[in-house]
Amino acid sequence: MAEPATRALRTDTMVLSMGPQHPSTHGVLRLELMTDGEVVQDAIPHIGYLHRNFEKYAENLTYPQIIPYTDRMDYIAAMNNELGFVLTVEKLLGRGPRPVEVPEKAEYIRVIVCELNRIASHLLAFGTYGLDIGAFTPFLYAFRDRETILELFEELSGARLLYNYIRVGGVARDFPPEFHHRLRRFLDYFAPQVDVYDTLLSNNKIFLERTTGIGVLGVDDCIQNGWTGPNIRGAGLAWDLRKEEPYSIYDRFDFAIPVGKNGDCWDRYMVRMNEMRESVKIARQALDQMEERGLLEDENFTANVRGTLRPPAGEIYMRTETPRGDLGYYIHSDGSDRPARVKVRSPCFTALSALRDMSRGLLIADVVAIIGSIDIVMGEIDR
Amino acid sequence: MTHPIEAFAARLRTTLAQTTETLELGGRWPEAIPLEGLIAIMLVLLAAVSVALIAVVPIVLVLMERKISAYFQDRLGPTRVGPWGVLVTLADGIKLLFKEDLIPPQADKMLFRLAPYVVFGSSFAVVAVLPPFRSTVIGNLQLGLFIYLAVSSLVVLGIIMAGWSSNSKYSLFGALRGAAQMVSYEIPLGLAALMIVMTAGTLNMQHLVMDQVGGIHRWYMFRNPFLFIGAGIYFISSIAEVNRTPFDLPEAESEIVAGFHTEYSGLRFAYFFLAEYANVFVVSGICVALFMGGWSSPIPGFQALPGIVWFVGKVLVLVFVMMWIRWTVPRVRVDQLMAVCWKYLLPISFVNIVGTGVVVLLEREGWGAELPIGIGHMMWIAVPVVLLVLGLLAFSGTAPVRPRPTTVGR
Description:
By secondary structure, chain A is α+β, with helices and mostly antiparallel strands. In chain A, 49% of the residues lie in helices and 14% in strands. Chain A contains 17 helices and 9 strands.
């Protein structure tokens, strides 16, 4: 009479198109999820929804004109993007007849703003990761403190997100009066604040249950996928360009590289939390050294780079450590005032490329946890 | 015993008849109305008044949640509409009322329209069995607790209807999650309530509360450790029943957008929203009635405040704890949610049932009547000792230590 249940129940894989408008795809990522119930059989990322042609634009702009466009790649850590590009151009100019001598004060200011920007970026990663896992409150705590950094940046550059502050030869403006006091007050306030976050979220039982053992990627696989930054440090490899290939004046500071052990979501998250502590240390040391060297009174914050910049013909590649990993700029110059070709090596792109392997066989909620833990910014992936 | 409504209707009819006679209106029309008709009219009026009163509850709770979450998160919350933002929920309601009435073209229109009312209706119907004060409940039913368990299960039906009829994948996920979750958690919830029924020997909410009158030590929660654990299980399950963090999977916004009500907007969404907060109030109210003495005063001999103050006060404390949890912890995953229910709450509930049974049996047999302390009080010593021994046995091996990320200085 009745048919066997196996014949009556025909099941099929459901394709769930998650994004580009979805609360936890961190921008405009689209994931094509093949789901069997809640189990994800395959997760295919589709990118390109935020493509703005940065590299092509750069071919038609003079070097200083490109700087604001770099802001718009990783808009969460714009200062770090600018620094990478500016250092690359300065290195290229160094080969020519008119090398640029960056004043010491500018170097210190660059390090301070980049480390502050790193804290702001990691705060956003921490807050939104809380949202991804379902805790709302950490997000607002993170944004409260990020706000202070943005206010400092506003004082410094006039902008809160896209600064156009670091320029070839130095920085756009000097510290405003009494700025270093406000900066130090923030650092003093913020250092113990990370412990508050740890109490609130990092060591929460549910949070640990959700993130440990999820999205594990070992060191070898990380290297295979070209992972860098906090993501590879989460797997246990102490790879940090600020130590490996010290650029700017990073060799003058004493700081540690936080690493994880298991390469799971919690480790990657925790590396960022510990990096905030280290960034505070770096910014403090930079401020102290500025005082010791009497740089706060110095008014020389930029080199004389009047006239059109015409780097010598040739190729150059340089990478810096942004909050998301190795951000590399390749510039091909033909000796004119505009680059012949600019190529950016994006750390988020490589991070996202491993998503498919990591999320196979997990649940939908785990995929969300993984995306949050690799801390991608679509602006940088799509450029 | 006649229902108070019946007695009141009869009295009203006599009074009306007398009045018409005194005023010499001549007619004897009140007696022309059958008693049943009068009762029906009065019940409808009572229901209308109750629903109107209870509709205020979600409005208050929404404001409470917004203010509490704001202060937890170092913000001010609503401040613009009315003093201290008290009217913000009304403003929100009016906004939702004026929104365009959207039904997705692929939706099953009838089910889509029906679902909010099923959820809303079953949430509000349960209010009838709450005992907010001594004299009356809206429906003083002998099977009050049973009615609560039965009617509150209908909510899940509305959720499935909403998720299925929306014809959206996120809604479907939300509905299936909701169905699995609510059906699962109903079991520990029912078992916790069963413990009370075993102890009290009644399903009548008012009688349950009467048995707890006389101070905090009379509360079922503190009668013996099994009931105390039962109260905990009930509270955890009730959080899952009302879909709140950490068990808010059916509407987990970071995973499935808004779950079963993704496609709803305007007034229909408002119905889901109101039902959610009405539910929060109801499960807390039932918890208060079952475990925390209902409307009775916790201080022995102190009777100055009316019962409703105690009842609402206790409910608000529980609601506050729910909000506190919601704005502090993250969300569990769907398999962890099921594990909490089936692997922990349910076995503990069964042990609890047996323990409660033993206590009830011993007390009924008159054991320990000559001792200075009761059986339940002795259990307060016995159960922790047993738990301690079991705990030591279970964790006597080396505890697994989670490797922590370290810092490498170079």
